[in-house]
Write the structure tokens for this entry.
Amino acid sequence: MATETWSPAQLPDLYGRTAVVTGASGGLGADTARALAGAGASVVLAVRDPAKGRAVADRIDGATEVGVLDLGDLASVRAFAGAWSGPLDLLVNNAGIMAVPKGRTADGFELHIGTNHLGHFALTNLLLPHITGRVVTVSSGLARIGRIDLADLNWERRGYRPMRAYGQSKLANLLFTLELQRRLEASGSAVRAFSAHPGVAATGLTRSMGRVQSLFVGLGTRLVGQREPAYGALPTLYAATQDLPGGAYIGPGGRGGERPREEQPTPAAADPDLAHRLWDLSEKLTGVVFPE
């Protein structure tokens, strides 16, 4: 039996819906924004570099606008969320950095956890009063190598290892979705939270890696990765539009554009106590809380 394929052409009609896609100035974020706009949604490309965002938006056939958002700066996150008015149907927490040298965000957080997790944590909670539909947070298969160290989340005492720092931040994405869905259900909200991962896909994330790491990742992408880079956006689009239970984790169905499928996260990513404790720490670090 042939495997069923799935493409953005099968998205439902999204006319009248509004979506925010972070990190939409390239890679999977741009592919996600393009597909949502092509299905009729009005899409805000939330990007750090507005010139790059406008260059992408200009090539999208549909309703788009560009918003400035630096997830490594909570002042920028607050400004973006504070300027929002009206309903927001879909928030796609897509932006991310991978295996960068040790550094700090504007607020003093380690770059991976600060950008990939804490920035999106703050953004989501600040926008939640406006969100009417879904929050989709993009994680990674490399979440499996992550370990949450609540006593040293910002790598102040551990020896810094870029891929481990990335893995921790991607595991944090999954735990964030788990606890967010629990809180939404407990509050009686109709909003649902999902997570997704692209499999192995060619994106711009490897540009910060060393030459050896980049060559290794490039080889892995050619051997087991998505045959077309845009296929990496399919799990995100599936989580954003299909009838799924809240909290679902969506991954690729294969390498050739097959229908995405629900996956079971690792035990660490499904630990409700760890998710709750990470949430509490994230509130303390960002000063942003779940809106009651």
Notes: The first helix runs from residue 27 to 38. Helices lie at 27-38, 50-57, 74-82, 111-127, 162-186, 211-224, 234-241, 272-286. The longest strand covers residues 131-138. Residues 8-282 form a domain with the Rossmann fold fold (CATH 3.40.50.720).
